[in-house]
Write a structure and sequence with these properties.
By secondary structure, the protein is of the alpha+beta class. The protein has 10 helices and 14 strands. The strands form 4 sheets. It has a 5-stranded antiparallel beta sheet with strand order 4-3-7-6-5. Strands 9-11-12-14-13 form a 5-stranded mixed beta sheet, with helices on one face. Strands 1-2 form a two-stranded antiparallel ribbon. The model has no long low-confidence stretch (mean pLDDT 90). The protein binds adenosine-5'-diphosphate. The site of adenosine-5'-diphosphate (ADP) has 23 residues, from helix 8 and helix 10.
Length: 460
Amino acid sequence: MKLKFKNRIAFFNTLAAATSTLIVFVAVYFVVFLTAYKHLDDDIRNEQEEVFKNIQIKDGHVSMRKSAEWDEKEHAEVEMNPTFIQITDRTGELVFLSANMKNKYLPFNPSLKKTLFFNNQFECKQIRQGQFPIFNQDGLAIAQLSVGISRAESALVLNNLFLTLLIAFPLLSLIFVWASSFAAAQGIAPIHRLIEAAREIDDQNIGTRLPLPPRHDEIYLLATTINELLLRIDTSFQREKQITADISHELRSPLAGIRGNLEVLLRKRREPEQYELKIEQVLHETDRMNKLLEQLLQLSRMETGNIKPNTEQIALRRFCTSLLEKWETLLAEHQLTVELTIPNETPILADSNLLEVILGNLLSNSLKYGSKGTTLSISWNEPTATLAFADRGQGIPPEHLPHIFDRFYRADVSRNTKIPGTGLGLSIAKKMADLQGIQLSVQSEEGRGTTFFMQFPFKL
Ligand code: ADP
């Protein structure tokens, strides 16, 4: 059944209300039914007690005392609601019959041993009949008393009640349908308002938020959840825009450099040395572009989850020593001495490739921003499982410190213009550290040096 959400709510509400009403109606009918018949049965019992007071048992035979008076007093006339009394002996022979029965018999069971009440017809009248066995002193049923009274009134009341309930039920169901549809429409109106508001939002006005309903209910929760989702989409949208702008900006300068050099070469014939110089500059710019694209690729691989760290046990001292050997020439060119304070037995858990990139980026920065003739200190702090990487370079001004792990961020751009860089190295290092659960942080004092800390997740 393909019902709209609103109609589904209305349908289930109506179903629940109609079922409850039906249960109540059936219960009411049965309570009235049982009460009416209990009253009739009580009346029959009263009559039976009256009769029992007036019967006598002699030699195993039952007879009615003052039978004529009884007849005359209580049952001589055919009343509106007459009481029919009949006594039969063990053989089924009639012992007493009230005068109002005009020699017509009530049906009975001659061998009944227990009191029995049942509905019956007598002379085209609806009656309630009770049959009572009459016992002698030995407990033997020697006769049967049958008492019948009219149940026409009770039947009428029950019939009327049944008809009333039968008509009321469909009418009430119709009212339920209407009321439930109205309530469902009211209930989902705020959802419609949210849908309308959400439809208005596109990439041009992604900063718009859904209006919040006044009550703190589920709709409020839905609206706030959608708003939070919009905020996340908005943020990543802005980030994408920023990244595209940053990338194009970063690519523009090496491209402009290449173009400028080529234009100079084309303008007039040059000496071979000049050609060589310009071509070298062009090559330098293409290297810059290459480095930038490589770093962007690394970042995007990490962001799309394509780099999975392959964590293994690494002997940190040996690892750093072999890394420093690779960098020996460059360190010597920059006249940097390295002081390595890592105990021989320092095992850590990390991905060796990612760790090499992180340390490589820190080393390369120490070369770029460090001061010639100074010492680079790499030390291990056992209690905190932290590797400190300290240079005695120019340092980073405090206002830049919170941003240096951001993509494309370069502290004090004017000062750095002569130092080649993309502003991506530390953001790559940070992401790679995060992937392995390593906490990468920085402390720096302007003019005195910078220390990067790598706190490993746990010691072995
Ligand atoms: P890049 O070095 O390519 O500019 P990074 O992401 O590696 O990019 O570094 C971001 C910025 O942080 C650098 O531009 C520099 O201003 C600052 N920085 C990083 N390392 C150091 C350091 N050891 N000493 C001083 N400044 C540093």
